[in-house]
Design goal:
By secondary structure, the chain is mainly α. The chain has helices at about 10-30, 35-45, 90-95, 105-115, 125-130, 130-140, 145-160, and strands at about 65-70, 85-90. The mean pLDDT is about 90.
């Protein structure tokens, strides 16, 4: 059967497959605990762990101001699904972060540089960077001010589109 003859999976099938992979990763990453957004919110004082602004319980998904639970060390990077590895965030801040994590060590920065050096069009740029610059840019990218600005933009767009 040629590649063109394969049926294109419907979005719901693709989403179910993605969910199965995520659950499998969670089990393989260690302990899995049951917790609620309310439990994590109470523990964190209803303050977003990314932008450091209050999280209002009145907002519901898909509003970007809705409460959400963020894995500090992402599941994709081997993080566990436990209370110790989660924090309360706004849904919009969590979505903005995606699975990126601020770099904090020279080893992490060198690893990131090595990835960039393998891309021919970015090789010269990557070679011009020092690990300290990579760390500083990564931490600036993950600053509370940046998350706050991105959340404000998402809220404005959400309200403008009248969702």
């Amino acid at each position: 059967m040629a590649n063109e003859d394969l049926p294109v999976p419907r979005r719901s099938e693709a989403k179910r497959a993605q969910d199965r992979r995520r659950r499998r990763r969670m089990r393989n990453n260690g302990a899995v605990e049951r917790f609620t957004v309310e439990e994590i919110g109470e523990r964190d004082g209803w303050i977003c762990g990314l932008c450091q602004d209050p999280v209002d319980r009145a907002y519901q998904h898909p509003d970007p101001r809705a409460q959400s639970v963020d894995h500090i060390r992402t599941i994709a990077d081997g993080g566990s699904d436990t209370r110790d590895n989660v924090r309360l965030t706004h849904w919009g801040c969590n979505h903005e972060r995606n699975n990126s994590t601020p770099l904090s060590t020279v080893e992490d920065a060198e690893s990131q540089r090595a990835v960039l050096q393998r891309i021919p069009t970015l090789r010269a740029y990557a070679e011009s960077l020092t690990p300290e610059v990579v760390i500083r840019r990564s931490q600036a990218f993950h600053s509370p001010d940046r998350y706050r600005a991105k959340l404000a933009y998402r809220v404005e767009r959400y309200e403008r589109e009248g969702r």
